[in-house]
């Protein structure tokens, strides 16, 4: 009977427990904030392992004819690493050679281009009568040189550069090694963590695990689709501008587009440098081309295509990617969509059912209390009513 008349369960929690839980939560959040970099790397390794797991399973189905030998998981992961590294090396080398070739021709034609620019600026100043307001060509060039010198001096801190490189190298190899072990030991790890849960929750926990892995796989397909579309648009745009190496620019855009909000925009730098060997107008159009592709990629293609693949609403995609970028740069933007998709799955499959069940129990308790009070009232009022009639 005590269960029927008890108050809200929150009101029954002692104050010292609430304060202790709040303090413990504050400590955990403080530790997470300090270890944010490692946590981001762990999440990235988990995503990388989820991406490679289907490929590794497919490779393990392939057998040597006449034998029962299967390729080990660790060897399959190493083959994937070598294949991706070879592709990136080839594309990077080809793009570097193309940029170096164009820069050499640009440097050879630079004196004539500067002289032509001086003549055009002087003619424009004289024809408009704004010679007192517009800077001369020499002043404009000196201003550009001072800006470049300031930018170079801002990167002249050796300690900062060395620290950043060391952190990047550590993070790179940490993710690769952790992802390798996660792929090799994925099944025992999942079985171990699920075995820690109560028996009646293990089936749902396994379903949630499989669903999150499925969403990550669909996110990869969505990102590849968006990257291919952006690469094709970049290659066609470079070809339409009359610039060389449209295939290389398309492939480079596709590879860099796997990092949201940065891929096509980064390709604007080599495109502008190559465009300068033709004319400043072509260089400006090339930069605008890649920034336009980057805008459409981040605000149209990714929300509609990738969001559809991972079953996320467009508003969630538009919020999660800039939020991840603001929290931790390109790495945060990269993992924003799969992390959001995983949180949605956990919320829909675990949190909301638990809340609904708790609300249902509270509703049952409320109805039971009302029935109990009604019976008590009836038992106390009943004899008086009969006495009044007699």
Largest sheet properties? none
Total of domains? 1
Classification by helices and strands: mainly alpha
DSSP summary, beta strand count: 0
Pick out the low-confidence regions: 1-7, 385-390
Total DSSP helices: 13
Separation of the first and last Cα atoms: 34 Å
In round numbers, the mean pLDDT is 75
Q: What is the helix fraction of residues, given as a range?
A: over 70%
The dominant shape is elongated
Q: Which H/E pattern describes the elements? A: HHHHHHHHHHHHH
Radius of gyration equals: 32 Å
Strand residue content: under 5%
Summarize this structure briefly.
With 390 residues, the protein is mainly alpha-helical.
Write a structural description.
- With 390 residues, the chain is mostly helical.
- The protein has one domain.
- The chain is 85% helix and 0% strand.
- Helix 12 (280-309) packs parallel to helix 13 (314-389).
- Residues 1-7 and 385-390 have low confidence and may be disordered.
Task: Present the secondary structure layout.
Elements: H1 2-5, H2 15-34, H3 36-61, H4 73-128, H5 137-154, H6 158-184, H7 186-195, H8 199-240, H9 246-256, H10 263-266, H11 268-276, H12 280-309, H13 314-389
Helix pairs in contact: 3-4, 3-6, 3-8, 3-13, 4-6, 4-9, 4-11, 8-9, 8-12, 8-13, 11-12, 12-13
Q: Which short descriptors sum up this protein?
A:
single chain, 390 residues, mainly alpha, 13 helices, 85% helix, 0% strand
